[in-house]
Amino acid sequence: YGYKVHMVVTKEGIPVEYTFTPGSYHDMQGLKQMPLNLPEGSILYADAAYTDYTIEEMLSDDGIRLLAARKANSKRPHKPWVEYLISIQRKRVEISFSDIAKYLPKTIHAVTENGFLIKLIAFIWGYTLDRMLKL
């Protein structure tokens, strides 16, 4: 099964929201699927695939700031120090994905697509509980 996992994690690396999309979907579809029940003043750091000025403005109206890395030809480039901050903060998400991957076996046996997704959710929950118990 070809799926992407889109995840929002705290600065401690604890997943607070996640969704799955088919691998062929654009990353913004994953962000649009999430309810984003985040406190006002939250900052979302993301890679360049999550650049969407309309979504940035909508989130800003809700008090949430989306800081997505920009491509070189961006119409709204960030200052270099902001790009650096984004790259540093995004590492927390990448580390969380890497840590979750450590829990995964080399292959996941699932008879159905839903069974596969349920197993992925179980690994994410297991990782979340592990991170919360270590706080």
From TrEMBL:
Biological process according to GO: DNA transposition
InterPro entries, per database record: Transposase_11
Boundaries of every Transposase IS4-like domain copy: 1-122
MF-aspect GO terms: DNA binding; transposase activity
Protein name: Transposase IS4-like domain-containing protein
